[in-house]
Specification:
single chain, Transcription Regulator spoIIAA, 2 domains, six-stranded mixed β-sheet, two-stranded antiparallel ribbon
Length: 525
């Protein structure tokens, strides 16, 4: 349906209504599955799915991005909460709601400060390493449910080891249900993007459970009550949640930011990372108010939204209202086998299991490969505290970047008593020592030089420490009897400081030697 064929109601259109309902049909079962992944009862997923997209719609800049429970944010929440509470308990659920509130506040503050660039802290190697390790953990966490196993141990890794070590405990019936669910979803996506494979799988799963009297693990009672606002939360636990909340706020925003950016490029529309931060913050804050848990942007549901013809961000509002309308019927989900929900989660994250790009890094950039694979290993080793793995990975990535930038390459030309030095790289506090050593070495190699030209036009950045180093070098060179000329170039960010520190320094002005600042114009020799 094109823009001209839609019938508008204010800013809404029929296409937005159709798209919103289409997403809602996928979101209802997904939200219950992601709630289980986060260690919560399914009703908390439905609450988050109902309220989050409504709140996000009023602030979003992308007309397609769909907010709600997602796998990555759910597993991050699980890791943060299991350190201080027991899953599936009332106290755990209240802590999850408080965590969502804090995540919401952090994102709103970052958005108001126009700090949408924070998502760039997650470099591609870090993202690749973390997401693939998190995908393994998510699949591992769902493996016992998929196989119908009641695991007597806690922890994702321990549960996987126990499950794989006790194949006699596997349920053939549960495995077949999970396998059929996966097949239905995959085949449905092959037929058409809008084919409701997830919804049909849930309906078939419920029907099978009721018809056969399925005795395996099921969802169980789901309250059919509408969400209500409450601030009766465990505020005393606030200090324990601030760090993981900041991590979830930053890491969890990387995915919706990438989705919105991709959609904007494909549709040639503008988007604002700062507005999306506020939008995602509002979604999390609203989710926490009604007993939900941290949410994010969903790539699969965003594709469904766009494919269904969404024209504006109000399609998210329709999605939330649809889930609200389903809540009174939530009790009918009670007989749904957990193997169905496990299969839904496994399918959602299976695309993360493509290790080809991470392996290719080993050939393309060994230092970045080390960052990616280190983050991958830390995520597995530190599970369930994968938030710590992310922060360590970011710190390690920044450290590798600074280490690589500390080397400044020096091109040298000597002609008729004039020594021209052309550094290539970044001159900052971490690289000034190697830069200074290289300059001194070249001066020592050319003792007959009378004139020194330092051409900075191939320098990407020059900080204050770099300027001071150049100043000291100019002073040493003039003391040695050389005339000094510096060409800053237009790309050097420290040009004004450079001119102020060197060109207007009274010490140089009073010197008998010549210290000049060139305007960077090409000259003939």
């Amino acid at each position: 349906m094109t823009e001209n064929q839609t019938t508008k109601f204010g800013q809404f259109s029929i296409a937005d209504i159709v798209a919103g309902i289409s997403v809602g049909l996928v979101l209802v079962p997904q939200s219950m599955a992601y709630a289980a992944l986060a260690g919560l009862a399914p009703v908390h997923g439905l609450y988050a799915a109902a309220i989050a997209p409504i709140a996000a719609a009023f602030f979003a800049s992308s007309p397609f991005l769909q907010s709600g429970p997602v796998a990555m944010t759910s597993v991050l929440s699980f890791g943060a909460l299991t350190a201080i509470a027991v899953p599936l308990t009332e106290s755990y659920a209240m802590l999850a709601a408080l965590l969502a509130l804090i995540v919401g506040v952090v994102r709103i503050v970052f958005g108001m400060l126009r700090a949408g660039f924070v998502s760039d802290l997650m470099s591609q190697p870090i993202t690749m390493g973390f997401s693939r390790a998190a995908g393994l953990l998510i699949i591992g966490s769902q493996l016992p449910k998929f196989l119908g196993v009641e695991v007597p141990v806690t922890g994702i890794v321990s549960s996987v080891i126990w499950t794989l070590s006790n194949p006699s405990s596997w349920s053939l019936e549960a495995t077949m249900i999970g396998g059929a669910t996966l097949a239905l979803i995959v085949l449905g996506r092959l037929l058409h993007t809008l084919f409701p494979g997830v919804l049909i799988a849930v309906a078939v799963g419920i029907g099978y459970s009721v018809w056969t009297g399925y005795a395996g693990p099921v969802v169980g009672d789901v309250p059919s009550t509408l969400p209500s606002i409450s601030l009766a939360l465990p505020w005393a636990s606030l200090p324990h949640l601030i760090f993981p909340a900041v991590v979830i706020a930053l890491v969890g925003f990387a995915e919706p930011a990438a989705i919105a950016r991709t959609m904007a490029a494909q549709t040639r529309t503008r988007w604002s990372p700062d507005r999306e931060l506020i939008s995602q913050g509002a979604a999390n804050f609203a989710s926490g108010l009604v007993g939900g848990f941290p949410v994010g942007g969903s790539f699969s549901r965003t594709l469904v939204n766009r494919s269904a013809g969404a024209n504006s961000r109000w399609s998210g509002l329709i999605t939330g209202l649809f889930v609200l309308g389903v809540l009174p019927l939530a009790t009918y989900f009670a007989p749904l086998p957990l193997a169905v929900l496990a299969a839904i989660v496994i399918h959602a994250v299976f695309k993360l299991m493509d290790f080809r790009r991470l392996i290719r890094l080993l050939r393309i950039s060994p230092p970045q490969a080390i960052v990616g694979w280190t983050t991958f290993g830390l995520t597995l080793v530190l599970a369930p505290r994968i938030d710590l793995a992310v922060m360590i990975g970011i710190g390690f990535g920044v450290g590798v970047h600074l280490w690589r930038e500390r080397n400044v390459y020096l091109n040298t030309v000597y002609r008729d008593g004039e020594l021209t030095l052309e550094p290539v790289g970044v001159i900052y506090f971490g690289s000034v020592t190697s830069f200074d050593d290289a300059l001194i070495r070249e001066l020592a190699l050319h003792p007959n030089a009378k004139r020194l030209v330092i051409d900075l036009r191939k320098i990407g950045r020059l900080d204050f420490t770099g300027v001071q180093t150049l100043r000291d070098l100019a002073a040493d060179a003039t003391s040695a009897g050389l005339s000094v000329r510096i060409i800053p170039g237009h790309a050097v960010q420290g040009t004004k400081v450079l001119k102020r520190v060197i060109g207007e320094d009274s010490k140089y002005l009073e010197s008998d030697q010549e210290v000049k600042i060139d305007n960077g114009v090409e000259r003939s020799d």
